[in-house]
Design a protein that fits this description.
It is a single chain. A three-stranded antiparallel β-sheet has the order 1-2-3. The longest helix has 15 residues. It is built from seven helices and three strands. 41% of the residues lie in helices and 12% in strands. It has 143 residues and is an alpha+beta fold.
């Protein structure tokens, strides 16, 4: 067992399974730490985790709309079981802030082991423009 798994096992108090129409999301409740950590590997699991966090905070969709700054009724369209809308970059950012969450991307060693033999390396190194982030263009205006 890896050191990360041992650390996680030490802190896990209980596992709570959330049943949704999509694949289940396993929530880990940490001892001594507020909030919870969701293991998310798909869009449906992300939506279920956001919905579970709203339930954990015991807030209504209208309160979530107000906190996140999105239009009235929009969070219900995003998070309710009969979803009408999908999360976009603006709505995801707003909901994460309102629910006091952040996303941390980590490598999945099991999945990497499955796909490693199919990974092919680039033949050419990245171009300089691709390697550095776009810093934009500065335009100075004067009278």
């Amino acid at each position: 067992m890896s050191s990360c798994a041992l650390f996680a096992a030490r802190w896990v108090q209980s596992w709570v399974q959330f049943d949704t129409a999509s694949p289940a999301v396993v929530m880990l409740r940490n001892m001594g730490e507020p909030g919870s950590l969701a293991v998310v590997r798909s869009y449906d699991e992300l939506v279920a985790a956001l919905s579970a966090r709203r339930d954990e905070l015991q807030i209504t969709f209208l309160t979530l709309d107000d906190l996140s700054g999105i239009q009235v009724g929009y969070s219900a369209k995003l998070l309710s079981p009969g979803r009408v809308k999908k999360l976009g970059c603006m709505s995801l950012t707003s909901l994460l802030g309102a629910l006091a969450l952040k996303l941390i991307v980590v490598e999945d060693p099991e999945q990497l082991a499955k796909v490693r033999s199919r990974l092919t390396r680039r033949r050419r190194p990245k171009r300089q423009a691709e390697a550095e982030p776009d810093r934009g263009l500065y335009v100075g205006l004067s009278r």
